[in-house]
Amino acid sequence: MAGKRAHLLNTVQDYFFIVIGLACYAFGFTAFILPEKIVIGGVAGMASLLYFQWGIPVAWGNYGINIFLLILAAKIVGMTFVKRTIFGTTILSLLIGLFQPIFSNITIVSGEPFMSVVIGSLLCGFGIGLTFVHNGSSGGTDIIAAMVSKYSNVTIGRMILYVDFLIISSSYFLFHSIDKIVYGVVFVMILSIMTDMVINSNRQAIQFMIFSDKWKEIADAIIRDAHRGCTVLNGTGWYTKKDVTILMVMCRKIESVTIFRIIKSIDKNAFITQSKVNGVYGKGFDHMKVKMKDISNDVRHVHPQTYYDAEGNVTNQNNENK
To answer: Which long-range contacts (CB under 8 A, 24 or more apart) does 275-284 make?
Structure first.
């Protein structure tokens, strides 16, 4: 019963932050990007092109294109992702439809298109990152990025960058303006960096190397209070020529302060090194996303060993079989 209650609470929390992230994205897009007539890429960019060319509301175009992409991706990304993306797409389209009339006649940053791009991209990047952290999706190229990241370690932000660049370039045929393309590229670059920062901020890992005579007490406290494992290494201090015991601890970046407090509360004279780790994979950390090569259908021919006869000619027969 407690497990179901905790699962329900986590689900509600995820959907709450997904809505917050989408609201942040919709605000940044409609208040800073759309009034400047900048195509940002993705489904929102495609919907913007439809709006600028034929007057189709961005919310309608965004929702229709996203549903089409979801139909294509359903079998690849799984129904859980599809359900959350339908939720995210619906909420985002409603928010865009709500915000667009409000900001169509309001200019927050007047006469500063570049500043509008910077502010809008930061808001949109933060919104997408927050949405992905809580297992949601705003749809669009996020769907393509999620499909790729499911089978590889390519970052979501980088994949969005690749896909959106083509969409941004197509805006030239509508506006015939290089400036619009430049602004769109700047937007996507800042958005991708911001997205990765938000997503990876919760995944950054730290490695501690702890030298202390009270290593047993420290290890027990880290396991008990920080819920992180410790690895005991044996070494020799070459300056003192004495054996030393070293604790190696892996933790999230946000947990590093807790580790420091534990160590200092037990041994104020402990010698500590701290270093950033690019990736930690395994129990308690991230899952390695590597698509393994299928060799079940490989045809392997085992050639008989090559032998030479007395005259130097090649023969595949062993002398014992002659």
So the answer is: 275/206, 275/207, 275/209, 276/204, 276/205, 276/206, 276/207, 277/205, 277/206, 277/207, 277/250, 279/153, 279/205, 280/205, 280/250, 284/228, 284/229
Place of tokens 């004279």: 269
Distances (CA, A) of 55 to 47, 48, 89, 104, 174: 10, 9, 20, 13, 13
pLDDT single digits (tens) 125-164: 999 888 887 877 777 766 666 666 666 666 666 776 677 7
CB atoms within 10 A of CB 316: 10
Whether the full predicted model's pTM is greater than 0.85, yes or no, is no
Q: Would you state the structure tokens that stand for residue 73, as one six-digit string? A: 């991706």
| CB burial readout 132-159, b (16+ within 10 A) else e | bbbebbbbbbbbbbbbbbeeeeebbbeb
Amino acid identity for residue 304 in this structure:
P
Cβ distance 22 to 91 under 8 Å?
A: yes
Question: For residues 39 and 44, what is the distance between their CA atoms, to the nearest angstrom?
Answer: 8
**Cβ contacts of 6 within 8 Å, gap of 6 or more:** none
User: How many Å apart are CA 269 and CA 199, to the nearest integer?
Assistant: 36
